[in-house]
Write a structure and sequence with these properties.
By secondary structure, the chain is an all-alpha fold. It is built from eight helices and no strands.
Amino acid sequence: MLGKYEKQARKKVPVKRAWPLPSSKRWLFYKDNDSITQFIPCVKFYRFLARRYHENKERREKMEGLIRAALHQYNTYISETELFEKWLAYKKNDDMRDALAIDQMKITAIQSWLKLLNADEAFVIQKHLIDELEWPRVEFAFKEQWKGMFTRSGRTLVKYQATALKKIVYFCESHRDLMLSLFGDLEPLPPEDDND
């Protein structure tokens, strides 16, 4: 016969967590001699979370590289669109019409990305990633835009760019299939150093 304290020691005791666990993982620990066997589901759950976090991080980094590549090609898309429109004004060509439609969709997608951003973030993305200016020139252009009334350091502008890219990545992840069908032919660019 078990004593009072031995019965209490064998009861399930929930572990307090900062976030809710799935119902199957709520009772992870037991106060008995086999505590190591009860610890295993908790370790598996944390490994699952870590693996999922790293998979999502790799996906976001790849999408960010694809966005950088698309932004670098923005002026090319605009030039191709103008050329195709002029050519189609003189001759009919179905392949060129399809290429024109795809380029127009790419331009519209990039413009929708810029509409997600506030004025400062859109300015930094426009100057640094689309116009490919170096950071000191972006700082100078930022000062000129506000006529010297508002100035920002280079580090602040880098933070604006990082925040803007996160917003765009979040948007693109929610429309992943569409973005990959439009920009899947591009090679993702690696992340740049902040000192460029």
